[in-house]
């Protein structure tokens, strides 16, 4: 195995520690940003759902404002978004460079994307179940937690899996401009120094992380669907 790596991946064999560190940084960014964006995204998605036209807490003015903000932030290319919120990133973590600093724009980019996914997933909950809960005197909070989030759990897991995969891709872009992780390794080592084996290994590791995330998501969906 060592002979194979030395022969076909000569540059990688010299920087295994850096490869492992970059993998950890990617997982760290994905996990922390995913947890924060997940919580905020569910809250925002539910607010969009219940305040939209026909929602249980219909509020056209609030919905229109939030809807426009979500659309704006979803439309911004991630690299431009990172540059735009540099002052905010510095305010939150004290710097705009590094793995921890990258979490801020990752969250800002992921929350609107995930919120829209949550809204679309929960819209599919059977309206008859909502009406039945209302007829029995359930409060909006009870409908949200006992009907929407419970009945829409499979859809929530499905869109969460999609969002995690999207987030992994964003971490690679964050790395390309100083955020650390496998994206940074692929650019600084692989692309800039013409070390194609480094780029290849970084890509393969990212793909493995994506495939594992997808497999876990699919397994959870199957479990809650039965």
Automatic annotation (TrEMBL):
SUPFAM superfamilies: MetI-like (SSF161098). Keywords: Cell membrane, Membrane, Transmembrane, Transmembrane helix, Transport. The chain crosses the membrane at residues 27-51, 72-91, 97-115, 156-178, 198-221. It is found in: Cell membrane. InterPro entries: AA_ABC_Transporter_Permease, MetI-like, MetI-like_sf. Its main location: membrane. The keyword Transit peptide does not apply. Residues 23-217 form the ABC transmembrane type-1 domain. The keyword Lyase does not apply. One of its GO terms (cellular component) is plasma membrane. It holds the Pfam family BPD_transp_1. It is a multi-pass membrane protein. GO terms for biological process: D-methionine transmembrane transport. Belongs to the binding-protein-dependent transport system permease family. CysTW subfamily. This is D-methionine transport system permease protein. It comes from Trichococcus collinsii. The lineage of its organism: Bacteria, Bacillati, Bacillota, Bacilli, Lactobacillales.
């Amino acid at each position: 195995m060592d002979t194979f790596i030395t022969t076909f991946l000569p540059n990688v064999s010299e920087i295994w520690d850096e490869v492992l560190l970059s993998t950890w940084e990617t997982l760290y960014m994905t996990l922390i940003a995913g947890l924060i964006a997940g919580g905020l995204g569910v809250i925002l998605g539910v607010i969009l759902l219940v305040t939209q036209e026909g929602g249980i807490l219909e509020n056209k003015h609030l919905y229109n404002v939030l809807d426009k903000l979500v659309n704006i932030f979803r439309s911004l290319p991630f690299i431009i978004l990172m540059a735009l919120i540099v002052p905010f990133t510095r305010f939150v973590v004290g710097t705009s460079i590094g793995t921890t600093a990258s979490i801020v724009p990752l969250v800002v980019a992921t929350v609107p994307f995930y919120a829209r996914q949550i809204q679309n997933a929960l819209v599919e909950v059977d309206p008859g179940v909502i009406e039945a809960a209302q007829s029995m005197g359930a409060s909006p909070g009870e409908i949200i937690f006992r009907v929407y989030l419970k009945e829409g759990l499979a859809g929530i897991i499905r869109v969460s899996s999609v969002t995690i995969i999207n987030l992994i891709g964003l971490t690679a872009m964050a790395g390309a401009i100083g955020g650390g992780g496998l994206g940074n390794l692929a650019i600084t080592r692989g692309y800039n120094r013409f070390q194609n084996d480094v780029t290849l290994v970084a890509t393969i590791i990212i793909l493995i992380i994506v495939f594992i995330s997808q497999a876990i998501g699919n397994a959870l969906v199957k479990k809650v669907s039965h």
